[in-house]
Amino acid sequence: AMENSGQVSETTDDGITLFIAAFDVSAIANAAAEQQKKIWSLRKAGLPMRAIAEQMGCSPGTVHRILSQSK
Questions:
Q1: Of all helices (H) and strands (E), which one includes residue 67?
Q2: How far apart are CA 42 and CA 57, in angstroms?
Q3: pLDDT of 5 higher than 80
Q4: Is 19:34 a contact under the CB 8 Å cutoff?
């Protein structure tokens, strides 16, 4: 199996190769934490949620959820 490529391959008994997505959970968690810090930084700088969403490439709902969850 190829562990760090983002994909794991596995061959079954009948010779069929399956590809299974493998994610580095800590990297995803770190990226989410960085996104939250950036959203808070933009909000503290006075940007409205829609402008933050546009700059971050996410929906205004995502910005609202992050700001209301992590106080």
A1: helix 60-69
A2: 13
A3: no
A4: no
